[in-house]
Amino acid sequence: MTAAFPTPAADETQRLLSPEELEAALRDIGAKRYHNLHPFHRLLHDGKLNKDQVRAWALNRYYYQAMIPVKDAAVLARMTDASLRRVWRQRIVDHDGDHPGDGGIERWLKLAEGVGFERDYVLSTKGILSATRFSVDAYVHFVSERSLLEAIASSLTEMFSPTIISERVSGMLKNYDFITKDTLAYFDKRLTQAPRDADFALDYVKQHATTPALQRQAMAALTFKCNVLWTQLDALYFAYVAPGMTPPDAWRPGEGLVAEIAAVPQAAGTGRVEAGDVPRLPRGVRLRFDETRQKHVLLAPERTFDLDDNAVAVLSLVDGSRTVTDIAIKLGETYAADPKLIEADILVMLNDLATKRVLER
Amino acid sequence: MNAITPSRQAVPAPVGLLAELTHRCPLRCPYCSNPLELDRRSRELDTQTWQRVLTEAAALGVLHVHLSGGEPTARNDIVEITETCAKLGLYSNLITSGVGGALDKLQALYDVGLDHVQLSVQGVDAANAEKIGGLKNAQPQKMLFAEKVTSLGLPLTLNSVIHRGNIHEVEGFIDLAVKLGAKRLEVAHTQYYGWAYVNRASLMPNKADVDASIRIVEAARERLKGQLVIDLVVPDYYAKYPKACAGGWGRKLMNVTPQGKVLPCHAAETISHLEFWYVTEHSLGDIWANSPAFTAYRGTDWMQEPCRSCDRREKDWGGCRCQALALAGDAAATDPACSLSPLHAKVRALAAEEAAENPPDYVYRTIGSNVRSPLKEEAKL
User: Fold this and answer.
1) CB-based contact (8 Å) between B153 and chain A?
2) Which residues, 6 or more positions from A201, have their beta carbon under 8 angstroms from its beta carbon?
3) Which of A72, A258, A294, B183 has the least C-beta neighbours within 10 A?
4) Pairwise CB contact (< 8 Å): A51 & B171
């Protein structure tokens, strides 16, 4: 729905709006201020952020998710009507779940883990930006201190969230190879939960904002909430996009991450050299006699290996057709030694060179 | 044998030659190691002179030739020069931006025996990389170039110069190197000479980010053992001891500029009182052994305290002479990057201060302009 009724100008502030006009005015606030318009979200959804910037977002946003039930409990505590509480308590259930491993917070943790964080690091919230903490805490205080109408009206950003969620899910899946459908499971649930919650809250506000002053309070509450969300993205942008001014105690790339294990496919020719393998010197690695210094050297990308006589004897036999065992037998004949002992020795040396990426198999 | 005058035998043979074939380059990186005053095309050495220089280098004991610039493939004779290296048994390393004519010439370079390619990457995110390099559309060209290098079976090294504008991308550089099939990755924190000195206030990262980048590299080395070799160059200003510049002055490397001036390191021209000789007037061997620029700071005789009596004097050879001049005002002083230098604390504080302020805009590398550094006067020490 387009906003047929813009936010009333100052000279109109005393006029009572019809419920439809009020809804239009509330939607207009979102059309202008909801955080889907923020440059950080544009970068996020268009795949323009790097992995660390996505991580910073996931980490900071966790604090918001984690505090939502605290906020809803504060709202609940102010409701004297059991029928209202029965509806509202569903929000807490949605976020906290019915048992460990269930609920929206848990799904957000999965998202944070999906981009590489250690669970405990995320739970500690020690790496979040102060601006995140201040904004979220301001939201919790707001619903505790203002009227119930304002507290409920401030939740109305949910009216706008289905759009952002679908943009986000499709954009992130398309643009980031480290994001999977599982990682984004949080948003699947929110696609149905948010509209249900928003419908209820909107009806409540339309029914209870019965004077011009109450209507203006409801609109101001929603504006406040939009700013809670917007400010968090401002802070992320400032710290992790431009100018990149990260506060001293905030998360930095590399912190709080699970070491990535076996995430990389093995490149051709790499891996442990065994006795039956055929070792070879790849292009860009050459055994050469250095006339000036009267010794053999192994020339490799931006380095030179000095070789002792044994290494020269082995590498002279690395020709891309002999196996390690063949080389050991040949050396055993030349030096009248046990080829099994030689084989063990040269495997150590060849694997050392393979680790340095100057020998392949 | 004369025991007093150092004999020519006492001078170790050079192992590497950095051939700066041209200063022309499509990129404009604000940390370029070239001098502020760049050589114009009309003054560049011709093909025959480079071939003679390479022949002399091989006879002198040089093993590695780094074909660099500017962008070395901007020269029409890059294939001929590379072929000369191969014929002389010299190990040829093409240090390239991968843009401009690089891709078109790669097959021919491979055919004549190019040994290795070092490709610069300014960033992982294309927009960021292109902002740093000052050239639109550079990133896709670089990626295509890298794919061609590995598909030919040439070993590829990615070189990433790290600074404030991309220090958040270190992990991305590692992922990119693996994805492109590189065997080596250089995570090289900016060295503040030349253009990087001019741009220091825009480039200097803070200590915490530097430490994080080191942790990332260390973890990746373990994880990618046998797959990717990662060389890490840590930033001087935050280090405990300085680097042995070019492996020690006049000990391992020589650098020939586009117009044939021979330098002990690529920044040596900033020491304006030194006398440099030209390959057009002297043989390379004569220059290496006898030119005033090479003998000035070779060995340890020139050292002052605290270097002179230091146990590390033959490890780091007093650090970088150019940095000593730039920061301490005396090219024979201890490099202030060294924690034993009386100026070290000041240098460190200066780095921290610059890293904490809003970065000024880059002064991009250009040929033929009057460069004014945005560094504050007092920030020059």
Assistant:
1) yes
2) A152, A153, A155, A156, A158
3) A294
4) yes
